[in-house]
Amino acid sequence: MNASGSLLRAPLLQDSSETPQEESSTMVSSIHSRRLKYLSLGVLVLQTTSLVLTMRYSRTLKEDGPRYLASSAVVSAEVMKIIVCTLLVFMENNLSVRAMKQLLKEEIVSKPLETLKLAIPAGIYTLQNNLLYVALSNLDAATYQVTYQLKILTTALFSVSMLGRRLGFYQWLSLLVLMAGVTLVQWPTGSGGDSEQKVLSASTQFVGLMAVLMACISSGFAGVYFEKILKETKQSLWVRNIQLGLFGFVFGSFGMMVYDGGRVTQSGMFQGYNKITCTVVILQALGGLVIAVVIKYADNILKGFATSLSILVSTLISYFLLEDFNPTGVFFSGATLVIAATFLYSYERRPASGSAVKV
Asked: Residues near 158 by Cβ (< 8 Å), separated by ≥ 6?
């Protein structure tokens, strides 16, 4: 073993310099990696922006007939998520139906306690998805996008309390900046107009704000809880999403029948569905799965850029196309603070070069 090891090491010591072919392959790999990062940035911006804008548009669109039920859309998204994840598991098992059945039986049916652990985050995610519809029915897309960044705060606090994670100085500072930015965004403006209309607008914004705040809390807790489960057990991410989807379908269906049971019985579950509604369902179902794949190639700085671009795009489209948003100086100040906090939270202080070199 020692002789073979020395023989293997000898050529490595002799050929320490890279050949032109190796240099070119390294350069190609670097260019490919860079393209994947920028592609990840584009996908993240497209996903986060398109879902918010289409959901807002679908909730404010005036059409003849009943509007689609948000609870129905949540259930439909869970069903689609289960189908997509099942196909991904099928592909992971070399397109073998028998192997896929065996895996799902072993991981879901044969481990009921492990499966039941997913009931808590699934129920919270279902609540969160319904809250997002309430929020975007009462807030414009730009205000929603900025305010929803409070999930960074809730996720950080739950990470500290549940996972024992320690935050650095810049992260704590970013959380304070984040709260200040969101406060400015939600600061009431002294615009003129009918007093009755102002009261109605204030009450509508309050409902939307409460929905976003509850969604941030639920998102932070469910995300950290799900992360804790993933760290404790070694299991396919797609299998875990199937388990989440199954519980989400059960909870979502129960909520739909409790709150919208009468309308479902009268006009059916898919009342008011159109192309925009189907787009919202698809984006909501695939959104989390796309992000799970994209995060593999995107670092924290790129995620910060994605958040910033998404806020800017949402603001522009809300103002020029949806025409439901009038930006103010206070809003832009708050949005700038939120974007700065996003970058600051992902900032990692590196040791000085002099201290890094030690003999």
From this structure: 220, 221, 223, 224, 225
Task: Give the model confidence (pLDDT) of 280-327 as tens digits.
Answer: 999 999 876 776 666 556 655 666 677 788 888 888 888 888 888 888
Percent of the chain with pLDDT over 90: 41
d(CA 37, CA 309): 15
Residue whose pair of structure tokens reads 């590196």 in the numeric block: 350
Model pLDDT, residue 207: 92
Tens-place pLDDT, residues 229-251: 877 777 788 888 899 999 999 99
DSSP H helices, the chain, are 2-14, 20-60, 70-92, 97-104, 112-116, 119-138, 141-147, 151-163, 169-185, 195-232, 237-267, 275-294, 300-317, 329-345, 353-356
Residue 47's pLDDT is: 82
* Rounded Cα distance, 236 and 349, in Å: 33
pLDDT digit string (tens) for 170-202? 889 989 999 999 989 888 765 545 555 555 577
State the virtual CA torsion across 288, 275, 253, 82 in degrees, nearest 10: -40
Find out whether 100 and 89 touch, Cβ atoms under 8 Å.
yes
Q: How far apart (Å, rounded) are the C-alpha atoms in residues 69 and 280?
A: 12
* DSSP 8-state assignment for residue 109: I
Q: What secondary structure, in 3-state letters, does 149-192 show?
A: HHHHHHHHHHHHHHHCCCCCHHHHHHHHHHHHHHHHHCCCCCCC
Amino acid identity at 92: E
pTM for this model (two decimals): 0.80
Taking alpha carbons only, the member of 148, 128, 133, 150 closest to residue 56 is 133
| Tokens found for residue 18 | 């890279």
- Cα distances from 144 to residues 15, 49, 309, 314, in angstroms, run 57, 11, 14, 9
